[in-house]
TrEMBL record:
Family stated for the protein in its record: Belongs to the IlvD/Edd family.
PROSITE patterns per UniProt: ILVD_EDD_1, ILVD_EDD_2
Cofactor binding note from Swiss-Prot or TrEMBL: Binds 1 [4Fe-4S] cluster.
GO biological process, one term: D-gluconate metabolic process
PANTHER family for the chain: D-XYLONATE DEHYDRATASE (PTHR43661), PHOSPHOGLUCONATE DEHYDRATASE (PTHR43661:SF1)
Protein name, as recorded: Phosphogluconate dehydratase
Length: 606
């Protein structure tokens, strides 16, 4: 199946741009493979430590050179609803490994923080940096050289990208990512948002707000809106690292457990000792990365991945830019409407045909590369299926010919939009990204004076004081990765939504983040250069006229540009934001971190 020219052009230029770094990466992982992942290279003392706590039968297998050993890297904790189901996974995976004569060990754990808990709190300043901590923790977990393959247990925002970066650092090992699925549907997301706005307006109290939130986030599993966590799951499947059809199966179901067992067996079938050696470093190439970006655009996925995908690609020796993403967005149709881009949640998306339907439609339209390696041992067409249990056995059946609900999941012939949900904005203020799939066309152009704030709280205070009564563009600066770690600014969403509902033209410009929950208000985020680097955003003043045109892809200061650039950049004493809740430990990260358009990573380029 050939892809359309626009897709191939981006793929080709990534490959050309990455020729040297990709070759170096492949050479490194081939050398690692040659050095051996076998326990025979360990001294007797090393090996004895490695299996000291194992059952006698597992010790006997690990003492030899031929039995396979599966590493389990887990992000389990029982504070994250999405990760709580992972508590039982290690035992299930070990049992599945033993069924085929192999062993499995928990190689290590990685931290997993919940942005939903830290939203608007000091801990959110650690969120983006946690991705690179997770990558390093993954490397520590696998550094014992005890494993022939690995499975990775993670779902949420920075966790999957961090696991991916770590896994690609051990790119000679086969890797299967194992999801746990979304919680069942609770209070509809639009109703939850309605109550949030009422609370901001003082029309309901905290008790009513907490009741609505608890009915929305009510049990084990991923939050059901289409934010970064569920965008992660889409990406792992469309890039061939999940089992087909496994991303959005609810926790605690027989099908979920069957898929988990099969994931362990599949990972062990891909090792260097077998005939189907398929390490993750061979799966993730320029075609797989482009497939991930196409999926992101076709579903209106998380803006966080404008950074994460660049960092993931870089870990595999691939150089990806925002321009690549923007060009793909212009070519890829929007096929999904899942909150905040619609009223449905991911359970409704899955029921309408889910990933199998989406992948088939994109393949048939020439938007995806079919000729890729996957953990399933097929090209991507092997993912145009639904996973089911038939007579208690795992089965994969062709995805439905028609969408179960074309208001949620559309065929390519009747796309919601001919272009994707993410756009690159360029202009004399720098570069930023915007998610427009949830923004109505009439709100995608805003030309208004700016109101400049150095924190979310500053805008909140102005709102409560009744100062925001005319059209304006809110500029929230000193929120970038070097400044304070680039927190998400979701406390602004209800406030700006209220003002928009009152008939004002409003927009947000920031060097901070908004993530997959970016909603109905146009938000130019990840502004680069950031304010702390003296970028043009640091020179804006209250009253400056700015034009945000999401359709044209521009963000412009409309005054005398030379005069703007001659201004002395604003400064802010950020020291109070660098202490408390562990933030003092991340000073080195703030010093090392790169720009948002290069992945906002603390790691050197591959």
């Amino acid at each position: 199946m050939a892809v359309i020219k626009a897709i191939q052009d981006v793929t080709d230029r990534i490959a050309a741009r990455s020729a040297t770094s990709r070759k170096d990466y492949l050479d490194r992982i081939e050398k690692a493979r040659g050095a051996g992942v076998h326990r025979s290279v360990l001294s007797c003392g090393n090996l004895a430590h490695g299996f000291a706590a194992c059952a006698p039968s597992d010790k006997a297998k690990l003492a030899g050179d031929t039995a396979l050993n599966l590493g389990i890297v887990t992000s389990y904790n029982d504070m994250l609803s999405a990760h709580q189901p992972y508590e039982t996974y290690p035992q299930v995976l070990k049992e599945a490994a033993r069924e085929i004569g192999a062993t499995a060990q928990v190689a290590g754990g990685v931290p997993a923080m919940c942005d939903g808990v830290t939203q608007g709190q000091p801990g959110m300043d650690l969120s983006l940096f946690s991705r690179d901590v997770i990558a390093m923790a993954t490397a520590v977990s696998l550094s014992h050289n005890m494993f022939d393959a690995a499975v990775f247990l993670g779902i949420c925002d920075k966790i999957v990208p961090g696991l991916m970066i770590g896994a690609l650092t051990f790119g000679h090992l086969p890797a299967v990512f194992v999801p746990a699925g979304p919680m069942t549907s609770g209070l509809p997301n639009d109703e939850k948002s309605r109550v949030r706005q009422l609370y901001m307006e003082g029309k309901v109290g905290r008790a009513e707000l907490l009741e609505a939130e608890a009915k929305s986030y009510h049990g084990p599993g991923t939050c059901t809106f289409y934010g970064t966590a569920n965008s992660n799951q889409m990406l792992m499947e469309i890039m061939g690292l999940h089992l087909p059809g496994s991303s959005f199966v609810n926790p605690g179901t027989p099908l979920r457990e069957a898929l988990t067992r099969e994931a362990a067996k599949r990972a062990l079938s891909l090792t260097a000792q077998g005939n189907d050696y398929t390490p993750i470093g061979h799966i993730i190439n320029e075609k797989a990365i482009v497939n991930g970006m196409v999926g992101l655009h076709a579903t209106g996925g998380s803006t966080n991945h404008t950074m994460h995908l660049i960092a993931i690609a870089n870990a595999a020796g691939l150089k990806v830019t925002w321009d690549d993403m923007s060009d793909l967005s212009d070519a890829v149709p929007l096929l999904a409407r899942v909150y905040p881009n619609g009223l449905a949640d991911v359970n409704h998306f899955h029921a309408a045909g889910g990933m199998g339907f989406l992948i088939r439609e994109l393949l048939d339209g020439g938007f995806l590369h079919e000729d890729v390696k996957t953990v399933w041992g097929t090209g991507l067409s092997g993912y145009s299926v639904e996973a089911k249990l038939v007579d208690d056995k795992l089965s994969f059946e062709p995805a439905p010919a028609k969408s179960g609900n074309e208001k949620i999941l559309a065929p390519a012939s009747a796309a919601f939009s001919r272009t994707g949900g993410l756009k690159l904005l360029k202009g004399n203020l720098g570069r930023s990204v915007i998610k427009i799939s949830a923004v109505k066309p009439e709100h995608r152009f805003v030309e208004a004076p700016v109101r400049v704030f150095h924190s979310q709280q500053g805008l909140q205070d102005a709102f409560k004081a009744g100062e925001l009564t005319s059209d304006f563009i809110a500029v929230i600066r000193f929120s970038g990765p070097k400044a304070i770690g680039m927190p998400e600014l979701h406390k602004l969403t209800p406030t700006l939504g209220i003002l928009q509902d009152r008939g004002l033209k409003v927009a947000l410009v920031t060097d901070g983040r908004m993530s997959g929950a970016s909603g109905k208000v146009p938000a130019a985020i990840h502004m680069t250069p950031e304010a702390v680097d003296g970028g043009p955003i640091s020179k804006l003043r209250d009253g400056d006229l700015v034009r945000l045109d999401a359709e044209a892809g521009t963000l412009q200061f409309l005054g005398d540009e030379a005069e703007l650039l001659s201004r002395t950049p604003a400064t802010e004493d950020l020291r109070p934001e660098h202490f408390g809740m562990g933030r003092e430990l991340f000073a080195g990260f703030r010093h090392l971190v790169g720009a948002a358009d290069r992945g906002a990573s603390v790691f050197e380029d591959a």
